């Protein structure tokens, strides 16, 4: 796949998947209706803002890296030809899923919406099952020892701090 085609595929997939998962579905749950903040603390809303502001660049950068460095897209139908282990992937193996969950949870905290928090938890569970059942076995078959080494050094869900040497799943 050429870089241009990979970039186009990533852009189209970005418009479909993250927009649906972190936009359309949360809107259908909340209608963006602002409720009272959790525990009557406005600070909780600001934590939600921080989650979203930290997650959006991670999401965009990771999608871009899949196209430009990986030669593919995050979509299973057009996967990368090269293992992407730079950028956010240096710190956590699933930055896209983590960013999407953080965006949804951030929306829930901003809006004071329990339904969005439940959706965020269910979304993480769905991502976790998908990663264990499909994504990791596929990556292990495709990239072999390179992926095994990556897994030994980078955690599945908990971002490691720069400078740390080992990871746990």
UniProtKB/TrEMBL annotation:
CC terms in the record's Gene Ontology section:
endomembrane system
One Gene Ontology BP term is: methylation
Would the keyword Transferase turn up in this protein's UniProt record? yes
Question: Which parts pass through the membrane?
Answer: 43-60, 91-110, 116-134
Pfam families in UniProt = PEMT
Membrane topology recorded in Swiss-Prot or TrEMBL? Multi-pass membrane protein
Q: Which organism is it from?
A: Bradyrhizobium frederickii
Q: Which InterPro entries does this one have? A: Phopholipid_MeTrfase
Q: Which UniProt keywords apply?
A: Membrane, Methyltransferase, Transferase, Transmembrane, Transmembrane helix
> What name has this protein been given in UniProt?
Isoprenylcysteine carboxylmethyltransferase family protein
Q: Where in the cell is it found?
A: Endomembrane system
Gene3D superfamilies recorded: 1.20.120.1630
Taxonomically, the superkingdom here is Bacteria
Q: Which GO terms describe its molecular function?
A: methyltransferase activity
Q: Mainly resides where? A: membrane
């Amino acid at each position: 796949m050429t870089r241009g085609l990979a970039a186009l595929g990533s852009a189209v997939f970005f418009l479909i998947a993250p927009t649906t998962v972190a936009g359309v579905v949360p809107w259908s749950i909340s209608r963006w209706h602002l409720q009272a903040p959790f525990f009557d603390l406005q600070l909780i809303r600001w934590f939600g803002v921080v989650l979203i502001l930290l997650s959006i660049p991670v999401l965009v950068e990771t999608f871009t890296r899949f196209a430009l460095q990986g030669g593919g897209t995050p979509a299973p139908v057009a996967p990368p030809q090269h293992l992407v282990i730079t950028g956010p992937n240096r710190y956590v193996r699933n930055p896209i899923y983590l960013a999407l969950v953080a965006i949804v949870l951030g929306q829930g905290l901003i809006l004071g919406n329990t339904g969005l928090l439940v959706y965020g938890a269910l979304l993480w569970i769905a991502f976790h099952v998908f990663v264990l059942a499909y994504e990791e076995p596929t990556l292990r078959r495709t990239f072999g020892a390179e992926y095994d080494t990556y897994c030994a050094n980078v955690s599945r869900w908990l971002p490691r701090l720069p400078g740390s040497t080992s990871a746990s799943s």
